[in-house]
Amino acid sequence: MNLYSRRLWVNRIGIALSMLAMVLGLVALMWILWTLFSKGFSALNWDFFTHDTPAPGSAGGGLRNAIVGSLMILGVTTLVSTPVGILAGIYLAEYGSTSKFAAVTRFVTDIMLSAPSIVVGLFVYALVVATTGGFSGWAGSLALCLIAIPVVVRTTENMLRLVPSSLREAAFAIGAPRWQVSLKVTLRAVKAGVVTGILLAIARVTGETAPLLFTALNNQFFSADMSKPIGNLPVVIYQFAMSPYDNWVKLAWGGALLIAMLVLGLNIVARVLFRNKSSV
Question: The whole model's pTM is what?
């Protein structure tokens, strides 16, 4: 067998293995989605969104308190992590090319990207919950912020580095200061990619359970007070799925389907934005 034939066979084997891996991944994804739909769709009704979690062994009920609590925690997380992550990414891309502080920031960001979420939850527990003497929604949002901010930072920095230097030079040539070039020229040029990073960060923290177990805990009753323990979908799903009550297990499947659809929707929106940006 000559060199050309060997390379041809290696290429065919590589393509075949890649296709096999793709098919296995799609089969696993469809299996998960089918299981969620078949077991969780029956729980999605009007009561599911308008009633609070039921007492042990009782029938009916819903996850209103957990849905509202999750939305509040995610809302605070988004409001905090978005500006902090974008501004930090702008600094690293536009001002921190040779700065030692920027190098340390990148190193810490990379560590935070790979840190297990339970470690982040324990850190916030020791820093906030143990010192203040109580669980709270604010502590849960802080834990999720520590997970979301590194994603936004790295995405913003990487997208800004794709902007051609000629665009910056043109802005400088007309007398624009550096801060205006960063905010109104380069950031605007990659806004779709930055939004994609924000959506992916939100999708990542949506289903995080471990950080909320150590920070926000849970609340069986409806509460909009972020300074106290507050209901949230990930913890409720964890607790209900492990319970011996059929009604709680059914609600857990419904909550899991709701989170899966939210994460899937955010990922689809992010891919569409990224595709449209690539086609420009």
Answer: 0.88
